[in-house]
Each structure stands twice: as C-alpha cells, then as structure tokens.
Amino acid sequence: MFNDDQLMRYSRQLLLADFDLDGQEALSRARVLLVGCGGLANPAALYLAGAGVGGLLLVDDDRVEVSNLHRQVAFRADQVGEHKALALAAQLRSLNPDVPVTPVVARVDAAWLDQQLPEVDLVLDCTDNFATRQAVNAACVRHRKPLVSGAAIRLEGQIAAFDLRQTDSPCYACLFGDGTEGDLLCSEAGILGPVVGTVGTLQALLAMHLLTGKPVDPQLHVFDGRALSWRQLAPRKDPHCPVCGDPVAGEDG
Ligand SMILES: [Zn+2]
C-alpha cells in the first residue's frame, strides 16, 4: 500500500509499536476537516499532513495579516494578503505532496457543514468565535463525527476531544452551554504564539489517536502557559443538553 518513499517518510512513526503499519493505514484512509486556518490550524495541519493523513479539508474566509505571523507558523511574509485557506494549502502541499488538500474560502454555517461532514472522518475546531464553535459542535453531534476542540487566549489554552461516534459522549455544549456570547478575540486580548501552537499541536495528536482507534478520555485539558502546568476537568454528558441531550429527558426536567 505504501511505496518506498512513503515508508521512508513515515519510518519514525512506523517504528512505534503503538502506531506501526496499522496506524499508518488507518491515518491514510482518514479525511479531516479543519474549521479555521489560523494559529491552531497551522501546526495541526502541518503535523497531520506530515504524518500522512488521507486528506485535509480547510475552510476559512480570512486573509493572512502581518499581525498573524508571530503565531500562524505555516505562513510566510510573502503570503500576507492571501486567503488563509489557500496559503495554508500551498504550504501543506509543499511539505507532503501525497496528501490531498482541499481549501475552501467560505464562512462556515450549518448548511455548509451538513454538506461536508458526511465526507470527513473527524473535525478539528480551530476557530476563534463561539457562534462557529456551536455550529461545528451541533453538526458533529448530528453526523456523529469526532470533534477535537481547541482554544487559546493570552497565556491560557484549552483542548478537548469529543468522540461523538459514541452516543454516551458529552459534547462541547454539555461543557460550555450553547450560548454564543463572550468572544474574547486575540486581536483584543493578546496571545503568545507558543501557547496557541501547543494547543494546535495537541489537537493533531488527539486526532491521530482518535483516527487510529486509541481510546481518548472526554477531558477538558487546560494549559497555563506561565506555570507550564495542566489541569483536567472531566465533563459529563448532560442529559438536558440542548444539542446532544435526549429530548424526552429534557421534557422530564
Ligand atoms: Zn451535549
């Protein structure tokens, strides 16, 4: 299934008993959607393309700005002004031409997600606003797709994986509610590049675990970038969750 060049390219991960040829084959069959092409998606997409994922679908309607370059590590100064989805796709193709990359310049909504999700195996939420996060979560619940959610602001990062293929998995709204208020944007609050890079990198790692059949606990991991410490919260599925809850349980409540 893999040619000699590919066996050499992936040799250091094939060496891992925890990954090996089975993991490589599972990864090479998987198509991943990255919603947002900024500071989280940049490292996540680089690692997934480098690892030989089966395909990447990238969506963002923003353009690269000079103020993005300190944290959006895939972009180069001569890409300022380009659409992020196209600029990221170009870098991924130059890293690993074997991985098909489909960039889409669009603002994500429920209709777009309903059209695309049947064609993908996993979704990385790499956005910076609650409205899109909620739309992505609701679509992943509807289509039973695993979701790896990441966020970073100032010196704090958060990451959580929701394996929504399992009906007893909590979803993003079980944890954070289904509101869309309270956006805190990097353009206003500030962000250090390595903090958002840490979260995006771990989104790629969790995606690789989920796509190669490793169990992933539904935990919220919170990163303190000043103390270099992590704490974990274990979200429970909320039977009254407006997105994934049982409507009958909701009526009882
Ligand atoms: Zn829920």
UniProtKB/TrEMBL annotation:
Top-level division of the source organism's lineage: Bacteria
Any one annotated GO CC term: cytosol
Residues annotated as domain THIF-type NAD/FAD binding fold: 10-243
Listed CDD domains: ThiF_MoeB_HesA_family
Pfam families, alphabetized: ThiF (PF00899)
GO-annotated molecular function: nucleotidyltransferase activity; sulfotransferase activity; thiosulfate-cyanide sulfurtransferase activity; ubiquitin-like modifier activating enzyme activity
PANTHER family reported in the protein's UniProt record: ADENYLYLTRANSFERASE AND SULFURTRANSFERASE MOCS3, UBIQUITIN-ACTIVATING ENZYME E1
Family membership noted in the UniProt record: Belongs to the HesA/MoeB/ThiF family.
Protein name listed in UniProt: Molybdopterin synthase sulfurylase MoeB
Species whose genome carries this gene: Alcanivorax dieselolei (strain DSM 16502 / CGMCC 1.3690 / MCCC 1A00001 / B-5)
Upper lineage: Bacteria, Pseudomonadati, Pseudomonadota, Gammaproteobacteria, Oceanospirillales
